[in-house]
Amino acid sequence: MQTTDDQELEVWIDQGLCTGDGICAQYAPEVFELDVDGLAYVKDEDDELVQEPGAAVRVPLTILRDVVDSAQECPGDCIHVRRASDTVEIYGPDAESA
Ligand code: SF4
Predict the structure, then answer these.
(1) Name one GO molecular function term (predicted).
(2) pLDDT at 96
(3) What is the mean pLDDT of residues 84-96?
(4) What are the chain's domains?
């Protein structure tokens, strides 16, 4: 996985497509959590849910593989992992190559 400091990644969820199955929260509970509305949200570095539509949080490199696996397994195809510097999607339904 080629990530360097200037290729910091961030992740966001399109709640409009989330099925609420909770797979992401099982794979990477550090950044994903289901809220009382039954949908998954990302969490910031203070462990707070971020609920603004399209809001993204940084992906710690230590759990990058778990986050990528979540995006690939997500039944709603609604987990987007993108490069922070230019917001190009690296993993997820809008990535150019899987
Ligand atoms: S894996 Fe995808 S569909 Fe399932 S709860 Fe997480 S974001 Fe929603």
Answers:
(1) 4 iron, 4 sulfur cluster binding
(2) 85
(3) 95
(4) 7-91 (3.30.70.20)
